[in-house]
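Design job #97: recover the sequence.
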């Protein structure tokens, strides 16, 4: 049995709306998705790293098995660092550096991340298909093609060469075009 996670999907806690899925954390060594990053909309609160064990999919997004208070207590999805106080053209202050928080050994894949075949870019990530029992990544969902001939395809994980600086495949554009549309 598999589960589809769409980037940009609405996320709800048991007691209310908490944000949207903005990216996923993948363990490349194990081939699993370990976390979803849920970012609150229109709020100053940071996004949170949500372990996949707390996530169920619904027809219109994801449901988290936690309350809004428990969601707020999850690890933040960004790390904020204050850099040494300096003079910036007559204005004193400590600049702030914000980095995405990624658990050790993980790699992040964000919404609209570029997907590259061996012979060039082919589209953008739309989501993932994961085995529900063990969280093993089985397919990457890709919006492929041009304005008039666009389709969503499910690329098998066996075609992924790396997830560094986008998703890089070990197949050609032609082979991607020949994949059937995702259901």
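Job complete. Output follows.
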């Amino acid at each position: 049995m598999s589960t589809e996670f769409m980037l940009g999907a609405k996320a709800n806690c048991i007691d209310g709306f908490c944000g949207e899925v903005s990216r996923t954390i993948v363990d490349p060594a194990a081939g699993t998705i370990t976390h979803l990053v849920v970012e609150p909309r229109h709020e100053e609160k940071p996004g949170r790293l949500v372990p996949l064990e707390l996530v169920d999919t619904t027809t219109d997004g994801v449901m988290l098995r936690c309350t809004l208070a428990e969601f707020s207590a999850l690890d933040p999805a960004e790390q904020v660092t204050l850099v040494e106080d300096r003079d910036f053209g007559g204005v004193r202050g400590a600049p702030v550096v914000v980095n995405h928080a990624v658990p050790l050994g993980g790699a992040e894949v964000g919404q609209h991340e570029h997907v590259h075949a061996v012979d060039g870019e082919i589209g953008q990530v739309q989501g993932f298909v994961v085995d529900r029992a063990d969280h093993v990544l089985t397919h990457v969902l890709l919006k492929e093609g041009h304005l008039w001939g666009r389709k969503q395809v499910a690329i098998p994980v066996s075609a992924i060469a790396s997830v560094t600086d986008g998703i890089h495949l070990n197949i050609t554009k032609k082979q991607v075009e020949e994949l059937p549309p995702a259901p």
